[in-house]
Write a structure and sequence with these properties.
The chain is an alpha+beta fold. It is built from eleven helices and 37 strands. The strands form ten sheets. A seven-stranded mixed β-sheet has the order 2-1-19-18-21-16-14. The longest helix is centred in the N-terminal third of the chain and has 21 residues, at 180-200. The chain is globular, with a radius of gyration of 30 Å.
Length: 709
Amino acid sequence: MRIALLSTLVLLTLAQLSMGKVTFTKDEIQEALREYIKEVQENDEDSPSVVSRAKADSLDNQSLDAESDDEDDAESQKVELPDGEKTPTNTNSNGKEEQKQDSNDKNPPPLSKSRREMMRIRGLEKSLAEAPYALAKRTIYSVLKKVNSKSKRIFASGAILWENGRIPYTIDEKTFEKEPEELKVLKTILSESIEQLSTTTCVNWVKRDSETDYVNIINDSGCYSYVGKIGGAQPVSMQANGCMTVHTMLHEMLHAMGTEHEQSRSDRAGMTSMIWNNIDSNNLNNFQMGQTSNAQPYDYKSLMQYELWSFAKDGGKSMSIPDKSLEYLISNKKVALSLYDIGEINSAYGCTKQCTNKCQNGGIVIVDKDNKCGCKCPTGLKGDDCSQLDTSEGCGGFVDVTGGQKTIALDTYTAGIACTWLVKGGANTRIKATIDKLDLPYNDNFDCYHWLEFRDYLIGDNGKERCGTEGGASFTKMVIGDPSRMMIRFNSAKHKDKAAGKGFSLTVKALQSGCSKFPCKNGGLCTDKDDGTYKCSCINGFSGDQCNDLAATASTKCDFQDDFRGCVFQENKAASAVLFSLASSPMTDVSGNTNGYQYLSLTYGWEMKKAVLETSAKFEAAERCLSFQYYYRTDQFYNDGYDSTLTVTSSGSSTALLKIGDANTPLNKWTAVKVTVPSTPDLKLTIEGVQGTAEMGMDDISLKPGACA
C-alpha cells in the first residue's frame, strides 16, 4: 500500500513536470517522503532493526573512507542474524596512509667508521680502555667489519636512553627545499606528537640550542631512526610525501627514544608469529625478536606494531596472530599513543617513580608537562583515579559477579546515549559475556548504527562491536592484563539520528580459570574447562599434564622460527651475564644460512661474559642424539684466552660433551655437529656460550632418540 502511494505520487509529479503543470511543491514532496519513511520505521515489523534512510549517510557508501572513525568501527563489527554472522561489506582496511608508510620504514644507513662513534654505539668505550691492547684492536676491527656489512637497523641489547628524558632536536630545512608544503606538514605533526608525549610522559623534545647530542630530522629516502641515543647529530628521516602522518612521526620518535617494534618484544611468543618465508629478505631484521623490558602487556594497538602485511612478499601477510577476530586492533588507524605505549615510556624513563597516586581499573599513572602526577584512564572510565564510570544517566554500572552470574539489559533505549558497565570477578577467574537477546539497528552494508562493545582483550583498547537481531554470541576475557575484569559498552550516540532498536539482554559471569596461572610449559596451549580445571595441548614432542615431559621415543627441535616457544632449551637468565639474541639477516660473509630466518646469536665482548641455555623438562631415561648447526665468525683464531667458546654439558657427565672454540673450529660458515647424550636419570643439558672476540650463532638444535649415527 505505502509503495503504491509513493509510486503514484512520483508518477503524478513526473507527468505534471512533463506538461509544465506542477501542482505539488518541492516542500510538499519532501514532506510526503518524510511521512512515508516515518511510517515504514514505525510499522514495518518484519525487519525492525534495518533502518531505512531518509538521507545519505557515510555508512551507506560502498567503500568507507579509510581514514574515518566509521572505518575503524566497521573493522571491529559483526552483525548477528538468524542466518549467521555478517561482516560489513564496505570496509577499506588496506587503504590507510599509515599502512603504506609502514612499508617505508627503512633501515638507517651504516654508521661512520669513526672509532669513537662506533665505540659509543656499541657501549665499548669504557671497556676497551681497560682491555689488553691486542684484544681492543681486534674487537674494534670486528665491530667495524660488521657495521660496514649490509645496512640494518641497530637492535642494541640495551638501548641508551636520553638523560632526564630531554631530547634536543633540529629540522634540517635545506633537505625540504623542494617540498616547502611538506615542511609545513612536518612542523604540524611534530608539534602534535611532542604535545602527546609531554602531556602524559616526562620525555620532552626541545629545540636544540648548542647540545652535542641531538636528533636531526631530515628529508631522506624512507622513514627511519636508530634505536635509542647514539650520540652526535642523530638522523631521523621523515621523507616528504611518504612519511607525513602523526602515526609515523611518533613511531620514529619512539625509536629514537629507545623503543623497538612491538612485534620484536621478547614476550611475543603466543601473541604473534612471523611468516618468515613471506617477508622481504631485505627487511627480516625488522621482525627478529629483541631483548626488551616489558612493563605493559603485548598491545596490538601500539604505535610500534607493524601491520600484518608489512614488508610481505606476493601481497600476503608477513605476520599472523592466534585470534584473527582481534586483527582490527592492528588495522585500525593509530594517531595517538596507546594507553600501554604511555605506560612503557613512563616505566623506561622512570617518569612516575616519585608518584604516590594509584590508578584503578586498568588506568596508567602519568605525569604532565608540569611534572604533576595523575591517571590516564581507559575510555569508559574517568575521575582522578579512574574509579568512576563515564556513562549516560540511567544506564551502566559496576557489576560484581563473584557471587554468581548477573544480567545486563536495556529493554528499551533512546538514541544518543553511551553506557558503560565494568564487570568484575574474583581471583583466578575470567569474565564471560553472552548475548541472550539482541535487536540493534544496522544497514544494508552490515554496518552497525547502534552497537554493544566487548573488551575481551585489554581494557584500554577498543573492543569487538556487535549489533543485529540474533542472540547467542559470547565473549570470554583473554588471559592477558586482568582476565577477571571486562568492560562492556553500548553506543547509540554516534549515529543518534537513527531509530532505536528493541534493545538487548546479556548474561555475565566469572569462570574459574586454571589457565590464568599459566600452567602449560614449552609452548603448550591452555584451554579452560567448565569445571575450573584446564587442559594443555602439547607441541614439538612434549607430553604430560603440563607439557613438560619428553618420552624416550620423543623427538624435539628448536629452529627458532617461533622464538623459544616449544624449545627444550630455554635461557637461564639468573645464570647468564649476557643473553643470546635472535638474529634474522642473511649473512654474505658466513655461508650456509642463505634464507636468513631466525637463529641464535652471541656477539663478541672482551669481558668473557656467559650466556646459558638449559633444559628443564622431565626426560625419560634414554640415550639421545643432540645435534645443531653453528657458526664462528672472526678473522682468525688467536688462542690467547679471549676466544669465544660454546660448551655442551650433561648432568650425567663430569666432562663436556662438546666444546667449540679452538684451532680446529671452522671459521665463517655454518657447520653441523652432533654428539650422543648418555642415558641419565633426571637429565639436564646445558649449552654455555662465552663471549670473546668471535661472534657465534646456533640453529636447528635437535634431540632424537638413540645414539648418533
